[in-house]
Amino acid sequence: MAFKAEYIWIDGTEPSPSLRSKTKVLADGSDLPIWGFDGSSTNQAPGANSDCVLRPVYSCPDPISGGDNKLVMCEVLLPDMSPHPTNNRAACAEVASKFENQESWFGIEQEFTLFEADGKQPLGFPEGGFPEAQGPYYCSVGANHNFGRDVSEAHATACIDAGIGIAGTNAEVMPGQWEFQVGPLGPLEVSDQLWLARWLLYRIGEDYEISATLDPKPVKGDWNGAGAHTNFSTKSMREPGGIKIIEEACEKLAKTHQEHINAYGADNDQRLTGMHETCSINEFRYGVSDRGASIRIPMATANDGYGYLEDRRPSANMDPYIVCTMLIETICAEKLVEA
Ligand code: ADP
Ligand code: MN
Ligand code: MN
Ligand code: MN
Questions:
Q1: Residues of the chain with pLDDT under 50
Q2: Residues 6+ apart with CB under 8 A from 323
Q3: Most CB contacts within 10 A, which of 56, 224, 266, 277?
Q4: Residues with CB under 6 A from ligand 1
């Protein structure tokens, strides 16, 4: 007997990559081998030298086709087995292992927006017009306010069945906008699993004839954008007195604001306007419980005196490998903070 392994990878689409996948049939019990693909069809190689390598990095049961079938998240390598320029995981792995002793945890809130299959008509918007203004949609119930619950529920169930560390879901502020969270997990675990969860979202959308997008500002105007708040802690932040380390981390983040913004996803300027629960892209602020800040310290963390911080800047289309790398590099490295 045989099983199917769906090899999933991140392509070279600019400015935000897409996911691709293809199926390998393997004999029962066999390991997941290295494989390859045509990089000239994914913006990852020239036609005359088109082979790219797929190396499995994370696999789980396939919750859609069931049985012994598997989903296999891969990283892309060049033919000489060095990381492909589009491979941001390799650098993340290096930084993760360098600062392993600080035990970084990440919880990522992935917001997304559901569209009809054409990718043009947002769910909950009447054709050619606008629905009732924002207010009733966040965490809503009822057919007049909640659009796409079936997709969100099928996706959460699939993530659980796959063993992905999904932490919850909620309907968001804009109609047809949703969120799921992955974590807390280490940097590679959260990133591999978030990419796989994104693939599952698109795949499940096929069955409902719904297309999901990670566009940070899918509808222009007075409608919330979509982000990927990244919650972060180290071991010392999670221990009594950790609030001091969290505040030091915020000071470090203040000094590297622009570098982080540059790495936090394309078109994020359309989302970080200072409106709609965001801080302007040109400002850096942190504060307790402040949803208009760049970094929010959750109320419970301030009250307990330890816990985690929430970086609210990353956009929905960010690459978690990059965001995790940046946070570890800025916060965990022994860079001196000027008084
Ligand atoms: P919000 O109130 O901003 O909507 P959510 O509940 O959506 O927050 O997401 C919070 C995320 O933070 C969850 O994924 C959760 O697992 C994660 N989290 C909780 N504790 C920690 C921690 N110590 N370090 C990092 N992430 C954490
Ligand atoms: Mn949330
Ligand atoms: Mn949210
Ligand atoms: Mn949040």
A1: 336-339
A2: 108, 228, 230, 263, 264, 311, 314
A3: 224
A4: 105-107, 109, 167, 181, 183-184, 229, 231-233, 238, 307-308, 310
